[in-house]
Amino acid sequence: MTVSDVPASVDFYDVSELAALRRTHDFDAATSSAFFGDPEPRLYTAFHGSSAANLSGINDPELNQALLDGRTATSEPDRKVAYDKVQARLTELAPVAFFIRAEPAVIAGKKVSGLVQYGLGSLLPSEIWLQK
Questions:
Q1: Mean pLDDT by 10-residue block, N- to C-terminus, for the chain (132 residues)?
Q2: Which of 24, 32, 65, 117 stands the most exposed, by the fewest C-beta atoms within 10 Å?
């Protein structure tokens, strides 16, 4: 079988209809994102079984617990252990197909300094300065 043998159609929806699709999971495939700088809160939001933003609809007790453990860990080593479990579980269950990697970047002239990114790659304007 080749890709051309598989029937497919694409439907376009207004953004106002997105909430209903998220609630009903009335689709075969959809594009979304789980892009983050820090795993909390994005991974919990994207993959915890109780999250309204869990577009995949996955509700796995082991994954849910690992996400909660990562969210509530009080030390960096405990967070690492929890998110290693999250990664292993997502790999095993494959509820989504990750197909792109974000590369937040900044391009500036030689005289621009103080470029500090935060969140999803936004710049802190208060830190930017120009050399004379």
A1: 75 82 79 79 93 90 98 97 97 85 80 84 87 88
A2: 24
Where do the domains of the chain lie?
A: 12-93, 104-132
Tokens 């495939």 found at? 29
The partner residues of 76 in beta bridges, in order of sequence, read none
Helix H or strand E segment including 22 = helix 18-24
Cβ atoms < 10 Å from Cβ of 48: 22
Question: What are the structure tokens assigned to 72, written together?
Answer: 């509530």
In sequence order, what are the residues at sequence separation of 6 or more whose Cβ sits closer than 8 angstroms to the Cβ of residue 2? Answer: none
DSSP state of 123: E
Q: How far apart are CA 79 and CA 82, in angstroms?
A: 5
CA nearest neighbour of 101 among 85, 86, 121? 121
**Measured between alpha carbons, how far is 69 from 86 in angstroms, rounded to an integer?**
10
d(CA 78, CA 70): 7
**pTM confidence score:** 0.67
